[in-house]
Amino acid sequence: MSTAPGPAARWERYVALGDSMTEGLWDVDPAAPETLRGWADLLASRLAERRDGPLEYANLAVRGRLLGEIVTEQLPAALALRPDLVSLVGGGNDLLRPGSDPDALAALMESAVEKVRATGADVLLATGMDAHDSPVIRATRPRVAVFNAHLWTIARRHGAHVLDVWGMRSLRDWRMWAEDRIHLSTEGHERVTQGALVALGLGAETPDWDDPLEPLPPAARAERLREDLTWLRTYAGPWVGRRLRRRSSGDARAPKRPRPQVVEIPGR
C-alpha cells in the first residue's frame, strides 16, 4: 500500500501497550523474518514518515496478557517513558473467557485512560472485532459489543481516539486472518494500520483502505470440514489446554521493544 500525502504527525514518542494483536502476531517482518511486526510497528513507521523530526517508539505488548496485567505491568512502565501518544488495546483475552464482565473491564480501562491523559499524552483505543462470522468465537459477541460501547463513551469523556476494528468491513474476510483464526494476517495488520491513521485524524493512505476483497468461489463442504478439523487439532485444542492449566502463550515472554528507539525511515 503506497504512502500518500497526509497531515503531519505531531507526536514525538509513541508507546504501544497490549496483547498479541499489538505484539504483532502473525505479521512476520520481511526485513527480519525471525521477528514479528504488526499494526503498531507499522503505525510507528507511518507516523515517522509524516514528521520532520524523529519519532521514538516502544512496544510493551505481550501475547496472552489480560487487561489487568496490561494496566498493572505495562502502563506504569509506559508512563515512565514519558510518551505523548499511547495506544492501549486490551480486553480481548478477558472477553474470550466465559463469565467475563465487560462492565468491570471498562471501568479498569477508563482508570488507565485517565492516568495517561493526566500526563497530557494522547490515547488510542481499539474496539474488539465483530465475531459474527466465527462459529466458535461468536458466543463472545454480546460481551464484546458492551465493552465496545463503553470504549466509545470513555473516549468521549477523556478525549481519546478510537480505532474502530468492529466496524471494519475488510476484516470480515478470513484472508485478513492468520491460520489460527484469532490473529491478523499481514494484510489484516496493514488494514488496521490504516484504520489507526484514520482514528488519529491523519487519514488513510488510499481511499479503498477498508474495501472488502473480491469474493472467492465458495469452498466445497468437504474442504471446509477438513480445514475446520485441522484448526481444531492445531489451534483450538492447545488453546483450551492452556486455559485449563491456567497458562498463557506469553508466560515468561518479555516485550519486544521495551525502550524507545528512533524509527528508521529508508531514504532519510
UniProtKB/TrEMBL annotation:
PANTHER family, per database record: GDSL-LIKE LIPASE/ACYLHYDROLASE, PUTATIVE (AFU_ORTHOLOGUE AFUA_2G00820)-RELATED, GDSL-LIKE LIPASE_ACYLHYDROLASE, PUTATIVE (AFU_ORTHOLOGUE AFUA_2G00820)-RELATED
Lineage, top ranks: Bacteria, Bacillati, Actinomycetota, Actinomycetes, Micrococcales
InterPro entries per the UniProt record, alphabetical: GDSL_Rv0518-like (IPR053140), SGNH_hydro (IPR013830), SGNH_hydro_sf (IPR036514)
Residues making up the signal peptide according to the UniProt record: none
Organism encoding this protein: Georgenia soli
Protein name according to UniProt: Lysophospholipase L1-like esterase
Pfam families associated with the record: Lipase_GDSL_2 (PF13472)
Ranges for region Disordered: 246-268
SGNH hydrolase-type esterase domain: residues covered: 16-191
